[in-house]
């Protein structure tokens, strides 16, 4: 997953700072409609991995280094502050992201995302020395392996680069059109996604975000699979059982109705 990176301050006074001061490098939102997919298929699963209660209001996750260079992920209840910072950084503006101590609910060792930046004036990023009772440091997934985390990251990339992926599909190629033998993995994904309409899954399993025109981009996840779709177009499916494969699903007779139903129940970014 690609995080919004924007250092807060120039870190020039890092050498004089308290070792416990956090030099912020980036931040992401953790809400039912928007969360780091690398950590789980739904919002409660991600919260559980971070030892957080799955409150509807969500959290902001702030990633940075302390004065010794150690990696930390800080969870704050001030979602609005983090959202404003991310929006400012996306526009190339500076923003002093300094959550109030009373809003901080957890400080976890490590980073769940791979960052290509580091705070100037402090030692290179490293995991803090463990203390008794500390959880294992958060670490990004191994890019050379294939599993649920990599599958979800692949779906993230398709959602971000929809036009490029769509160009690779010749017309309306589909695994589920009449007269064609359905791909068993895709068939299972469509059946399980349809079951979500009848029995709503945990929050975040179905998410909707902006797309061009009147369309929406849908992200649907389940045990061993991810689906990315445009409500006015086709879908792409990724499976744990098929490493690195991206399976296109054409409109056909059933996909439009399914996507419409999923959009009606989807969580949206705050």
Question: What does the model show?
Answer:
- The chain has 270 residues and is an alpha+beta fold.
- The chain is built from six helices and nine strands.
- The strands form two sheets. A five-stranded antiparallel β-sheet has the order 5-6-7-8-9, sandwiched between helices.
- β6 (216-222) and β7 form a beta hairpin.
- α5 (184-198) packs across α6.
- The longest helix is centred in the C-terminal third of the chain and has 15 residues, at 184-198.
- The protein is elongated, with a radius of gyration of 20 Å.
- Residues 1-16 have low confidence and may be disordered.
Write a brief structural summary.
With 270 residues, the chain is α+β, with helices and mostly antiparallel strands.
Q: What count of domains describes the coordinates?
A: 2
Strand order of the largest sheet: 5-6-7-8-9
Strand residue percentage:
15-25%
What is the tally of helical segments?
Answer: 6
pLDDT < 50 runs, ≥5 residues: 1-16
Tell me the structural class: alpha+beta
- Number of strand segments: 9
Q: What's the multimeric state?
A: single chain
Report how far the terminal alpha carbons are from each other: 19 Å
- The whole-number mean of residue pLDDT values reads 88
Strand count, sense and barrel status of the largest sheet are: 5 strands, antiparallel
Shape: elongated
Estimate percent helicity: 10-25%
| Rg from Cα | 20 Å
Write the element-wise H/E pattern from the N-terminal end onward. Answer: EHEEHEHHHEEEEEH
